[in-house]
Amino acid sequence: MYQINNIVVKTDNHLVESHMDAILKAPKFINFVQSLNIEKLDIDHIRIDNVKWFCGVQSISPEKLGFLYLEVVAKDKRNGKPVAGVVFLRGSAVAIHLELECQGQIYVAITRQMRLPTGDDCEEIPAGMVDASDNVAGVAIKEVEEETGIKIGKASELINLGRYFPSQGGCDEWIQVYYKRVKISYQQMEEVLDKTHGVDDNESIRVKLIPLNDYDDYLDLMMDSKAEVAWRRVQNYHRKNPTTSSFCSIM
Q1: How far apart are alpha carbons 76 and 84 in whole angstroms?
Q2: pLDDT tens across 36-56, in order?
Q3: Residue 132: helix, strand or coil by DSSP?
């Protein structure tokens, strides 16, 4: 029998069983268990049904845990009723609303790439999963550079727009949203648009720039919750900070 934070962890999957020691030490799984509110939840056990690693089976380590499919068997202490506990555990992520100013025009940077769960290409704001170091702002800087080719400065210069849960009924993932506006030259903008971006073998990302004045309507076509949330929070930020500038130059 396995335990974490005095909670019993079970599995009927032989593959999961063979990897259980690494799973119990994985920061992603530990963070999830620590998020469970034991003041409200009476937890009988956690059952892990399947696991996916971001590495080969010969190089498994806790930091390389990708996804878990699990169920938390629990009751709500306040009413004694069972709680729906099936979870797709994937960890936290980051997204950034990036505005580019070029020759007096302002654009929102959008990425386009194949997203197999949807069966087609998708347009999104730059985003990525947070690694085991939990350096959220650092991941935002890294993802923007990898997905767009644009270096946007230091993590401390990002405007923090807070977190949100995109699918709290079935997934543990929260997304940290940031905002940054930078000035670029026309040559830099052409280079960004001409290249295919991405560092992994399975990434082939193109950048699209949407004029800021058209962006509100364009969101209806994108169907990207990250972009929707970020845009509302950017507008709210400017309402609260009408004289604050988020500009920097990479010229």
Answers
A1: 10
A2: 999 999 999 999 999 999 998
A3: coil
